[in-house]
Amino acid sequence: MTKTQLADATFDCRVAFADTLAALAREDARIVAVCNDSVGSSNLKGFQDEFPDRLVNVGIAEQDMVGVAAGLANSGMIPFVCGAAPFLTGRALEQIKADIAYSYAHVVLCGMSPGMAYGQLGPTHHSIEDLAWTRAIADLSVVVPADPEQTIAAVRWAAASEVPVYMRIGRFKVPTVSQSAPAFRYAKADQLIDGDDVTLIATGTMVSRAISAATILAGEGVRARVLNMSTIKPLDREAVLRAAAETGRIVTAEEATVNGGLGSAVADLVVQHRPVPMRLLGVPDVFAPTGTTEFLLEHFGLTADGIAAAARDLLP
After folding, report:
1. Phi, psi at residue 49, to the nearest 5°?
2. CATH for 190-314, among 3.10.129.10, 3.40.50.920, 3.40.50.1260, 3.40.50.1970?
3. Is the pTM value of this prediction over 0.90?
């Protein structure tokens, strides 16, 4: 594949996740997978075939799934809990709080197909609240890789971290955006484009769209800084406050509700230490309708044009 073809290609991060998990399992006998009858949708079939004794399928019982993972962690294993993000977080939030975060168990909670990746299955399957729910829980790190390279690096970090982690594993295909090595640095934003007129802070599927928005703005003479915020909690305070001081304007973009996620985290910090004009892009205080993922992202202005328009609104 040429560099041009690679730049135009898009990838399912679940593949990078599954390949990395299997590689870790070959290296470390403590690695186990726990799922909720989601072997197929979590892309764990290869892991199951290679390590049949190290995959625990509890069925459609998310609360049990998290409890089992906590027990495995307390027994010295390193469990990766895999389930559709809306059900992992929505049904098992008490167990995530009490069994994982409060107990400080080394469990990696993998929210598969987050955001609006299950678009046509409707609001019951949209996982737009997960960042707000998990960000509110003490001692739980929240990580959202933006592409396959970041997914690989984040999964390896999570296995070695010894901290409770909630990680989004995207289903909606995305291009490669990682430019630095290593591709993932815990609690550190990656500055992908420099600029001093406005800062675009994005996470997950929105990072590539923020880069495209910056290209649109550059054609208009606007220098937009782009930050890939792959760790929502703990937030890279230094990068955010530096952006506020140096660009004076911030737009955040996330495939999630604007209540409590990335935008709220950035706004909480900025309003207390360096107030600047902001626009928070995401799903407003509504249930997202039914439709394809692409339709839903366009519906809520989560596109390159939508991000660029939000930035223009902040410019003098």
Report:
1. -65, -40
2. 3.40.50.920
3. yes
